[in-house]
Amino acid sequence: MAKLHFRPYIPNQTVLFPQRIDENIASNDPVRIVNTVVDTLHLEGFNKLYKETGRCPYHPKMMLKVIIYAYMNNIYSCRKIEKLLLRDIHYIWLAGNEHPDFITINRFRNRVKEEINNVFTQLVLVLADKGFISLEVEYIDGTKIESKANKYTFVWRKSVEKHRTKLLDKIRILLEQVDEAIAQENSVKDTPAQFTPAMLSDIVDELKEVLEHQPATKDKEQKKALREKKKQLKELEGYRDKLMEYDNHLDTLGERNSYSKTDPDATFMRMKEDAMKNGQTKPGYNLQIGTEKQFLIDFRLFPNPTDTLTLIPFFHSFQHRYNRLPAVGVADSGYGSEENYRFMQENGIEAFVKYNFFHKEQRPRYTPNPFHAESLHYNTEEDYYVCPMGQRMNRIGTRRDKTASGYITESARYKAQNCEGCPLRGSCFKAQGNRIIEVNHRLNQYKRQAREKLLSEEGIKHRGRRCIEPEAVFGQMKYNMAYRRFRHKGEDKVTMDFAFFAIAFNIKKMCAKLLKAGKGGTARIICILIRTIMTQYTRNIAAYYQISEKRVA
């Protein structure tokens, strides 16, 4: 029988000339592109985050490379990154055989939570400069991402206001029972709703002073009265602390209706991922993103669960990043409001934004309600409507409403002359008296313009792309990259974390496009191409930061 021969196996063998670490890394590995891109980024703003004295910190470029590459591979835990820096050859090569621990990695992320947004902006400008995107079209959509906070840490505005009102009544009743020496009874009856913790503290101090100056006595009735006053004092102190707690809740709420005790920036919202199917609210953020060719070009977090009020601030975010607005804005019906249409028209943004019931109007079997206000005949010259029975409806006034953002909408009101005995009354309306309709002419005009654009050839193209732009990004983010829940508390840290994710997402998308365009070619050529791109772009990015610094100054 022949003897078996195995390849030499000496795990502790000493090598005279150590090999390079990256010799075992494939030439078409995305880690090389990450290394090249970060090496040529403009990171001078990071220098101000470090002190000139003390122990030398890890190089920010090395830390950026490691964290971005980890995010590209669905690794968001600092402890896992620390382990990979000891085990994975890709991370060992990126880190230059450095081994920062998980605390150092986390501190670095928190330290650069403001500058990381500039890095994201730089990367997007690089993509635009070399033709990956144009920054002329922005496809906008939003999704709700759950916060790290527990779902049972809620504080509701209505509950706080209700209990605060009851507490003020208790305070008023208690102060009426307090000794007359405090001299607060009359003011309590006049202004019972203006109590503040500071006012109650003054009353408590006065009551303590009165009790301290009372002479000692052996009379049972006087001792009983003294005990009652001390009890009232203790009760008043408890009311003061509770009132201070309610006021702090209201200050934290601001204009919101809820927040989480462990993450005050998070608002309770209904999430799409509802395992129990009971509509339970959870603390989270409304993440708004702008995409083009499935690249992330902008993002921002909002506390309000609806998308209507986020569009204008989101455009301002785009303008702050790139010193201009997009030429075309594409969004779904959640953004179709009069305020948003007007903003886009006044700022020269071509709006391909749907409105409510747009899809319903496009159905083949759709027939408009003949009794609806929009179906009635309108005489623009004399400003009146004609009901289905031919009766004239004259204008009787204007109704003004203010939205949550402070925008005022105007609706014209029209009233019929005589609806008594009309055979169509049961189908027309069911209220008593003559029918009154309210019409927002400006909004109807914006809807007509939006309908024309959406049904045009360009509008059909944008409508088709909108479904595969932000929706595809959300799908890749939540399912392919497992980014379904934030891992930090506080809006600033959550924004920082998503900025790292957005950078990693764009680089990963760029790697895929370059490798696809190369058709299997080596990444070494691609890295040379990227280095050339970034070198040519250095002057442009420096000029951009000079403009930004002048704008801030």
Automatic annotation (TrEMBL):
User: Any idea where the Transposase DDE domain is?
Assistant: 386-511
Domain called Transposase InsH N-terminal: residue spans: 20-111
On the tree of life, the source organism's domain of life is: Bacteria
Among InterPro entries, the record links this protein to: IS1182_transpos (IPR047629), Tnp_DDE_dom (IPR025668), Transposase_InsH_N (IPR008490)
Cross-referenced Pfam families, in alphabetical order?
Answer: DDE_Tnp_1_6 (PF13751), DUF772 (PF05598)
List membrane-spanning regions.
Answer: none
Name of the protein: Transposase, IS4 family
Q: Which organism is it from?
A: Bacteroides intestinalis DSM 17393
